[in-house]
Amino acid sequence: DVPISIQAFNGETLRDAGVNQVQDLVKLVPTYKFSLGPGTVAARNGIRGLGSFGNSAIEPSVATYLDGVYVPRAGALNSTLIDVQSIEVLSGPQGTLFGRNASVGAISINTARPTDNLEGNATFEIGSGQRYRGEFVANLPFNDSFAIRFAGLGEKFGGYWHQVPTGQRFGGTDTISLRLAARYHVTDDLTWTMRGDYATQTGDGWYNISILPSSVTPTIRANMDSLLSGRLPTIGIGSNSSVQDVSTANIDDSHWGVSSTLDLATSSGFAFKLTNSYRSWRANEQDGEVTFLPVPILYREYLFGSKSHNHELQILSPEDLLNGRLKFVVGAYYFSEDLQIDYDYNLRSEYCSTMIAASIPPLAGPCAANAKHKAFVALFDQDTESFAGYAQATLKVVPELELTLGGRYTHEKKTGSYEGIKNNPAALLAVESSSFKYKDNRFTGRVNLSWKPVRDVMLFATYSTGFKAGGFNSGSASAVLDQLRIFKPETVKNYEIGAKTQFLDRRVTANVTAYRMDVDGFQERALTEVGSAVQNVGTIRSKGVEAQFSADPADWIRFNAAVAYNDAKFTDYPNAPALPWFTGSQDLTGARPTFAPKWSTSEGVELRAEFNSGYRASLRADLTTVSRQNANAINDYSPRTFQNGYAL
């Protein structure tokens, strides 16, 4: 019934498929891709081959929502999948109804509401990497009007890697997540739902690092052997063990939020919804060895802090306007965020004696004589305000044909500052003090035509636009970034045609969508001569086909399958970063962006048995395949960062 490209899953499906975190959605949604660096702040959600890493002030390309509340930083959702009622993954720009503009897609997580029944459940899981997980849910109705629901989760994960000399594990995190929801029927027409959640993650989150043998020439390897006195990195990963020094890695993250939703139904058929929320995310993390060498040279401590609040009023029309031919929704939205990013660059015991002594000998003495902890400090602050008004209406032209028109006007305003402080002359970063402003007004819209020739077949065509705000570079560089501090917005034009069908008494579902997205002003972290900076690097054309299939041929067996074909390429990228060890730039016009495999699929089969006693037994298998892709953090098309196709 919904004429857009969307995949929706209820809580039971998510549980049976082992979707415990947002990133596990790759098991079910081929168009969705997730990647993560050490720690949690670099989380990247991608749809249709497009996305943004979160370890900067850049806005996410894929917006995430928790119970209708926009969560501005992807890293803040690493531990929130507890007592989930449903998850929806929407492909394409969501520039009309959703609270915050999303240029390429959205993920909407809906947690279970309190019910009128006394109920509960407990789940326990054990897995490799010394993983132990427990979840508990309890629903308590006090009377016909008031009920509360509590959910708690604890997970201990030792990590998949271990060090050879000590046997110590690394790469693990421990998670605690709590949620409390209350529902109060103030009157028969007015319902008030309140939610609060809190989660923490601690550990190191590190992973094994080695050097790809084919990327190191004999000369480079000999020079490294001389410089490091034979202490070479691991050459090629052959097992889950390492001799790397990872002792400095650390994660200490927490986030919490509260929200209030008032739902009012009137006798005239109009409905009003008022949502208010506040969220706080604090990520205090520490790199392992930044150079990835088994030598103590340099590590970073960084603090990401985001405090945001959302306020939205929505008015929904009755279903029977113009004799059931018209329905609409209008709304007003406000969002504010205070983002702080602090980086401390700390010198380890051999920074001065090994790296500086070999590269800049005159600085070795001053390096040793000055501060090692907080040798360079980078302080970034950004305040964001966003106002929006939107409306969307659907008109039945004839009983089988519907026309939907939607529009949204957004006002964005940002202010920011950056302070770079050098406390050691051998910290090779630039002292800088600057402030900046950004303001923009944008209209985004949607035109959709859907036709139902018969009850269980719907055909649709859509044109929509998306917008992702510009902003400021938060990173440090070896020279003052000056004009590179500000980047412009990213805009998207999206074209779709699709079909949604059901057959055999609705036991078989088959949906397919063909799309084309034209991205202008693509925001990408690119390497410059002085360091990395987010820039508007060019344009991208992403086109392809998404298809989903499910079948319940009998009560005891279920099948599901999905496939995504994505033909993405830069239509204009003349000044892309040079390959490693080269200077200048290269023209990547026609090249495929990172994390954009041509083919992705997911398949699943489940056998079920229901017993008269109420017990149920199930056996499930899932398969995910991904074709060859470039898994680099930047688009330099390095042949060393292409990952061959694989199956999970």
What key phrases describe this protein's structure?
648 residues; mainly beta; five-stranded mixed β-sheet; 4 helices; 5% helix; globular
Offer a concise description of the structure.
The chain is mainly beta and 648 residues long.
What does this structure look like?
The chain is mainly β and 648 residues long. The protein contains 4 helices and 39 strands. The chain has a 20-stranded antiparallel sheet, with no helix packed on it. A hairpin with a 7-residue loop joins strand 33 and strand 34. The two termini are 32 Å apart.
Question: Could you give the topology of this structure?
Answer:
Elements: E1 6-10, H1 11-16, E2 32-35, E3 44-47, E4 50-51, E5 62-66, E6 69-71, E7 84-91, E8 105-111, E9 119-127, E10 131-141, E11 146-157, E12 161-163, E13 169-170, E14 173-185, E15 190-203, H2 218-227, E16 241-242, E17 250-265, E18 271-286, E19 298-316, E20 326-347, H3 351-359, H4 364-369, E21 376-398, E22 401-422, E23 432-454, E24 457-468, E25 471-472, E26 486-487, E27 490-503, E28 508-520, E29 523-527, E30 532-536, E31 539-554, E32 557-572, E33 576-577, E34 585-586, E35 599-610, E36 616-626, E37 629-630, E38 642-643, E39 646-647
Parallel strand pairs: 5-8, 12-16
Antiparallel strand pairs: 1-7, 2-3, 3-4, 5-6, 7-8, 9-10, 10-11, 11-14, 12-13, 14-15, 15-17, 17-18, 18-19, 19-20, 20-21, 21-22, 22-23, 23-24, 24-27, 25-26, 27-28, 28-31, 29-30, 31-32, 32-35, 33-34, 35-36, 36-39, 37-38
